[in-house]
């Protein structure tokens, strides 16, 4: 009875040990499976993280590129607005130029008669003025008349020549001028030195400096000067020619005409 019981115990223990060993083996297999699954999860997580990092970098690049494009768009918009303003200004300028071009014919129609009147007025003025540099001045007026009837000279050039002639006449009235010429006194031609004191007075002195005259604009003749003025007149002629130092001199001048 006791032997059977001992064998039975031994068998039971052996069966228990085998069962425990089988249980440990099963647990070991399950743990290995868990470890493999965990490794796969880690590997999958790493792969996913790489993809996430890749997509994040791409998103950052796209964001930077978008910002650059947006900045460029604003810059282009500002430039386009600037160019549009220039174009509008140029169009306005072109419009004004076209208006000027359209008015050229009208301007020409008004300027041409004006130039003829200016030359005629200058010719008449020389005739009425003191007769100094008379030949030169009359020749200048005649050249202007010839130019006005010349098609080869532009309208602008004709107008410039007329203004130059007017400017020369204006300067005559502000300077002391001397020149050599002839004057008819009592039917005789006498070689003299002329002196015009602007347009105030015109004098003539014989080259031997023994006689002198002053032009009378009212009678269109020459009035003889007293001998006391000969020295002063000689001094003034030298100053006008740059042959003497500036100095004071006394000469008679025509009386002012009474107002009408």
Structure report:
With 260 residues, the chain is α+β, with helices and mostly antiparallel strands. It is 65% helix and 13% strand. It has helices at 2-102, 104-128, 134-148, 155-172, 230-240; strands spanning 176-185, 188-197, 201-206, 212-216, 221-224. A five-stranded antiparallel β-sheet has the order 1-2-3-4-5, with helices on one face. Helix 2 (104-128) runs antiparallel to helix 3 (134-148). It is rod-shaped, with a radius of gyration of 59 Å.
Strand order of the largest sheet: 1-2-3-4-5
Average pLDDT taken over every residue: 83
Q: Count up the helices.
A: 5
Low-confidence stretches: none
Shape verdict: rod-shaped
Rg, Å, rounded: 59 Å
- Strand tally is 5
- Decide which structural class fits the backbone: alpha+beta
Terminal Cα span: 183 Å
Order of helices and strands: HHHHEEEEEH
Beta content: 5-15%
Helix residue percentage: 55-70%
* Main pleated sheet: 5 strands, antiparallel
InterPro entries: UCP028069
Protein name: DUF3450 domain-containing protein
Pfam families: DUF3450 (PF11932)
Organism: Shewanella intestini
């Amino acid at each position: 009875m006791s032997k059977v019981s001992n064998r039975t115990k031994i068998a039971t223990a052996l069966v228990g040990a085998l069962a425990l060993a089988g249980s440990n083996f099963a647990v070991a297999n399950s743990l290995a499976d868990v470890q493999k699954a965990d490794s796969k999860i880690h590997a999958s997580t790493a792969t996913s993280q790489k993809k996430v990092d890749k997509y994040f970098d791409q998103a950052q690049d796209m964001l930077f590129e978008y910002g650059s494009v947006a900045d460029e768009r604003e810059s282009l918009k500002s430039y386009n607005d600037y160019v549009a303003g220039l174009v509008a200004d140029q169009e306005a300028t072109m419009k004004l130029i076209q208006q000027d071009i359209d008015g050229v014919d009208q301007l020409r129609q008004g300027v041409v008669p004006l130039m003829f009147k200016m030359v005629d007025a200058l010719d008449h003025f020389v005739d009425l003025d003191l007769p100094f540099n008379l030949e030169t001045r009359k020749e200048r007026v005649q050249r202007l008349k010839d130019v006005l009837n010349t098609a080869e000279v532009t309208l602008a050039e004709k107008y410039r020549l007329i203004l130059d002639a007017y400017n020369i006449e204006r300067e005559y009235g502000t300077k002391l001028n001397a020149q050599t010429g002839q004057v008819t006194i009592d039917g005789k031609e006498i070689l003299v030195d002329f002196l015009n004191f602007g347009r105030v007075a015109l004098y003539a002195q014989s080259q031997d400096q023994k006689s002198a005259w002053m032009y009378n604009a009212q009678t269109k003749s020459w009035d003889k000067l007293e001998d006391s003025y000969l020295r002063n007149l000689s001094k003034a002629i030298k100053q006008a020619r740059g042959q003497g130092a500036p100095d004071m001199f006394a000469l008679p001048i025509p009386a002012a005409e009474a107002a009408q």
